Amino acid sequence: MEKTLSERLFEHYCQSKGIACRKIPEADTSTPDYELAIEGRRIVVEVKEIDRNKEEQESDRLLRQRGYGNAESSTPGDRVRAKIDKSSAQIKVRTVGIHPSILVLFDFGPAYRHLHPYQIRVAMYGLEQVYIALPPLGSGQPHVTGMGYGPKRKMTHEHNNSISAIGVLFTPGPDEIGLHVYHNKFAEVALDTGLLAKYGINQFKLEDEIVGTTANWREVVPSKES
Questions:
Q1: Of 70, 91, 93, 170, which is most buried by a Cβ count within 10 Å?
Q2: DSSP state of 116
Q3: Contact 208, 108 (CB under 8 A)
Q4: What is the pLDDT of residues 73-125, one digit of tens each?
Q5: pTM reported for the whole predicted model
């Protein structure tokens, strides 16, 4: 089967970084795409593309035709959630509770909007919601008491924990390929940040949670964690 653009980009990225990358032979049952070997550790990798859907393709057509496209609407993180759903089972078969894994995503759309850090975060941990207190009638105004993560979360202790991290593959320039990695705090097998830090890969973890707020990404500092 012919390789996808995202697979070719991922292979080129690994080659440019000197990362040992082996394509997993296709089998009767669905399997992940690659295995990386770093310092004696095996990392299972599945690579997926986010294609332009019909609504986006129509907007692209109008943009070319009249200079501006249609307004588009979608639930934040939905495209990422769909890829998590599609990949989790096949990744789990290969990791067998022993090896860490990365679901690597590539977005064909402009500015990689489906793979913005916010989109990754709410896909993994749930949509942000605001908590509002409603005092008894006549005793005050409704007021915000805090924020938290709500519905549509894909990562929990029981769900999709075979995925250790989500990687975002992008092309900042004509001859450039980048990779950012967002770690799953619920991973059954955590991905050692030091394995990727030596290659200069930007990595992010969720901040410590504080009651009444939604934790954001913080960049892993290699000198402290590798």
A1: 91
A2: S
A3: no
A4: 678 999 999 999 999 999 999 999 999 999 999 997 665 789 999 999 999 99
A5: 0.88
